[in-house]
Amino acid sequence: MTIIAPSILSADFARLGAEVTAAEQAGADWIHIDVMDGHFVPNLTFGPPVIKAIRSATKLPFDVHLMIERPELSIADYVKAGADRITVHAEATVHLHRTLHQIKEFGLPAGVAINPATPVSVLEPVLDDVDLILIMTVNPGFGGQSFIPYSLDKLRELRVMLQRRGLQDMLVQVDGGVNTETTRAIQEAGANVLVAGSAVFDKADRKAAIAALR
Ligand code: DX5
Ligand code: ZN
């Protein structure tokens, strides 16, 4: 079963609540929320107040992807705003283990993300501390970029590592350049959670768009 998590980064920000509701009606499993701080990534999006404002627009889980420096300083704010799961970047904190456990202490599943140029080996020490691993397949910051092909090798390498550790049930998420051309190879390489921004929100028929990605 593949989980489809449309990213509201590509939604119409002027009608964000309605866009989230539409994604639910179109068959999305999670709502992916890209938080960017203008430091860790070269773009600035939204934070806890906006997440709180759209919380009532859907019953779907809010999958919050923090592309912010020192996420440990604001985990509590995202929990209060309505996050159902939180993913932080390994590159964004010098205290990754502590930050992951901070998320779990709130009772939320914790995810770790790595950028395209970060090796999979970085994940090895925290494999038992996470519920989800996010392999970025574009350099984070913007929607609509092209999938970086060597990401497929990273996914395969991760799958071998998970198998060795008896963690084959891990959620393995992919974010960036997921579309009808790349979805098959991504799933074959081992991803079971697909984030898609432009491939869902830029399409008039979101239901068909989500079905095509599955
Ligand atoms: C990238 C974001 C993604 C982005 C994906 O910085 O983390 O979630 O919205 O956009 P698409 O699917 O258009 O590549
Ligand atoms: Zn994302």
UniProtKB/TrEMBL annotation:
Pfam families: Ribul_P_3_epim. It comes from the Bacteria. Keywords: Carbohydrate metabolism, Cobalt, Isomerase, Manganese, Metal-binding, Zinc. InterPro entries: Aldolase_TIM, Ribul_P_3_epim, Ribul_P_3_epim-like, RibuloseP-bd_barrel. The active site is at D34 (proton acceptor), D175 (proton donor). GO terms for cellular component: cytoplasm. It catalyses: D-ribulose 5-phosphate = D-xylulose 5-phosphate. One of its GO terms (biological process) is pentose-phosphate shunt. The keyword 4Fe-4S does not apply. Gene3D superfamilies: Aldolase class I. Pathway: Carbohydrate degradation. Coiled coil: none annotated. A divalent metal cation binds at H32, D34, H65, D175. GO terms for molecular function: D-ribulose-phosphate 3-epimerase activity; metal ion binding. Its cofactor is a divalent metal cation; Fe(2+); Zn(2+); Mn(2+). Its EC number is 5.1.3.1. Substrate binds at S7, H65, G141, F142, G143, G144, D175, G176, G177, G197, S198. Binds 1 divalent metal cation per subunit. The keyword Transferase does not apply. SUPFAM superfamilies: Ribulose-phoshate binding barrel (SSF51366). Belongs to the ribulose-phosphate 3-epimerase family. Catalyzes the reversible epimerization of D-ribulose 5-phosphate to D-xylulose 5-phosphate. This is Ribulose-phosphate 3-epimerase. The gene is rpe.
